[in-house]
UniProtKB/TrEMBL annotation:
GO BP term, example: riboflavin biosynthetic process
Top-level taxon: Bacteria
InterPro entries the record matches: DHFR-like_dom_sf, RibDG_C, Riboflavin_Biosynth_HTPR
PANTHER family referenced in this protein's UniProt entry, alphabetically: BIFUNCTIONAL DEAMINASE-REDUCTASE DOMAIN PROTEIN, DIHYDROFOLATE REDUCTASE FAMILY PROTEIN (AFU_ORTHOLOGUE AFUA_8G06820)
Record GO terms (molecular function): 5-amino-6-(5-phosphoribosylamino)uracil reductase activity
Species assigned in the record: Agromyces fucosus
Pfam families the UniProt entry points to: RibD_C
The name this protein goes by in its record: Dihydrofolate reductase
Coiled-coil parts of chain: none
Domain called Bacterial bifunctional deaminase-reductase C-terminal: residue spans: 2-186
Amino acid sequence: MKLITNTQITVDGVMQANGGNNPEFDPGFERGGWALPLGDEESTAYIGDFYRRADAFLFGRRTYDLFAGYWGVQDDFDSPFVSSLNTRPKFVASNTITDPQWADTTVLSGDVEAAVRELKARPGGELQVHGSGQLIRWLLERELVDEMTLIVFPVIVGAGTRLFPDEGTDFALELLESRTFATGIMAQTFRPAGRPQYA
């Protein structure tokens, strides 16, 4: 399977709380919900189609808990999010979850890198990672990401957790696809292409 990340971010790189404020997951963060006012029918359909393409999902612990508590308890199977997330295999990287309650979930603990490489070696289309910023950074450092889609919303939040750290590994990226929606949202898909060249 090809490992593809999909991240909704602001122009200043914030990925935290795109859907709304959540005191349990984002205590003290009051700038959540920045994505929803900018979404339109076309961009929502694009994101929904992305979910439909998944053969399986890989999550970090935090995003898994958030998604399980929200998408995992819904039964509107006309929704591409509900139908995809509740009918496809899910994997969560965690050393603390022992009994996942969300159906068809496998916990990856111990040597997570070897487990992810084994998943990638399986036949199939896409192993998708949504949210899960800490996991995405970890996967990038180990060169496990095949493609990265950034859905950039035209807003500067000015605070919150960013996808990329202030200091980290550098990567060159090859642009595979770019699309702009009426509200100014831009979706760009990249392939990591080794180290960048510097002038």
